[in-house]
Write a structure and sequence with these properties.
This protein has 327 residues and is α+β, with helices and mostly antiparallel strands. It has a single domain (92-320), classed as Penicillin V Acylase, Chain A (4-Layer Sandwich), CATH 3.60.60. The protein is 34% helix and 22% strand. The chain is built from 10 helices and 13 strands. An 8-stranded mixed beta sheet has the order 1-4-5-6-7-8-9-10, with helices on one face. The protein has a 5-stranded antiparallel beta sheet with strand order 11-2-3-12-13. Helix 1 (25-42) packs across helix 4, helix 2 packs across helix 4 (79-86) and helix 3 crosses helix 4 (79-86). It is globular and about 50 Å long. The N and C termini lie far apart (37 Å).
């Protein structure tokens, strides 16, 4: 059995919003640095920021909005800066790549993923932490994230399911809806099982396109949900003995691709094919072998900030942070 990474932070969702996030001075400073990067990346004009603040009550529950306000006060930053971070993926997903796969072996379902996200000075990698959420209606869950980040890009709920998000682009119009990373957190907090999670992730209107790899606790519980804001398609492994792979392109959903010349889009098929070849030759049986495959030169990117393996049956989470590139 893979050893679970020791949680770096614990957030009690049953506690009042003002008591959920208590970061030490070092983590508060890291959070402020990350928030400043998000704000610079988005480059929003004051009028657009005001629009986001006005729309926040439509996008977030009152409880989560209060959590944002409390954390902003704890970090001593303006509330709009924290709201921008939560909406970052929906606004600028072209800089978020990722390669992921799920394999079954001996009744176990292993869920592995590289998170590829450009970051100044390797800050996203250096600030990575494992967050254990307790007090959720459906039970505790674990996310791989950063101090001060309230959404979830990668998470596992013991005895229920694991989910990771990959970016993709289409030319379908955006929708005014709950941010994708908030939806993932809400589903991890409230969905009692794999089937419920898949149904909600496939049917809920979202702001923008994405690809979601969801794995459960039993053989056969592996699916890629390919999403546009209002449509979805499910993609499964061709055979139980074969891996289920996802990078950054649609393969089941008919959707016209937006014009995207980014390195992430350009390398998507190459990373998919590399994983397919390698996993056909050797199917990993544990987290260490999964991480080895993720770290291969034809899969890992210069912007890979996190590498992780989840196992929903046990709730185990293994996180590896790649070293800084050589100067």
């Amino acid at each position: 059995m893979m050893a679970m990474t020791r949680p770096d932070l614990t957030v009690d969702l049953a506690a009042p919003p003002a008591q959920r996030w208590r970061l030490d001075a070092g983590r508060r400073q890291r959070a402020r640095e990350l928030l400043a990067i998000y704000e610079r990346d988005l480059g929003l004009q004051p009028a657009m920021v005001e629009h986001l603040v006005a729309a926040a009550p439509l996008l977030l529950s009152a409880d989560l909005l209060a959590e944002h306000a409390a954390l902003a006060s704890h970090l001593e930053v303006p509330l709009p800066r924290l709201l921008l971070a939560t909406c970052y993926y929906d606004c600028i997903k072209a800089v978020l790549g990722c390669s992921a796969f799920a394999v079954e072996r001996g009744g176990r379902v292993l869920h592995a993923r590289n998170l590829d996200w450009w970051s100044e000075g390797h800050l996203l990698a250096d600030s990575s932490c494992v967050v254990r959420y307790v007090g959720a209606p459906a039970g505790e869950f674990t996310a791989v994230g950063w101090p001060g980040y309230l959404g979830v890009l990668s998470g596992v709920a013991k005895g229920r399911f694991a989910v990771t998000l990959n970016a993709v682009t289409s030319d379908e119009p955006a929708q005014l809806a709950t941010p994708v990373v908030v939806l993932l957190r809400e589903v991890l907090a409230t969905a009692p099982d794999f089937a419920t999670a898949v149904e909600r992730l496939a049917s809920t209107t979202i702001p923008c396109d994405c690809l979601l790899l969801v794995t459960g606790t039993a053989p056969g519980e592996r699916v890629v949900i390919e999403r546009t804001p209002c449509r979805s398609a499910a993609r499964f492994a061709p055979h139980p003995d074969q891996p289920l792979i996802v990078t950054n392109d649609y393969r089941a959903l008919t959707a016209r691709r937006a014009d995207d010349s980014s390195p992430i889009a350009a390398t998507s098929c190459g990373r998919f094919d590399a994983l397919q070849r390698a996993l056909a030759q050797h199917r990993p049986t544990d987290a260490a072998q999964c991480l080895q495959r993720l770290d291969a030169a034809d899969v890992r990117m210069a912007i890979t900030m996190q590498q992780m393996v989840f196992e929903a049956a046990t709730g185990d989470c293994r996180l590896r942070v790649p070293p800084r590139p050589a100067a």
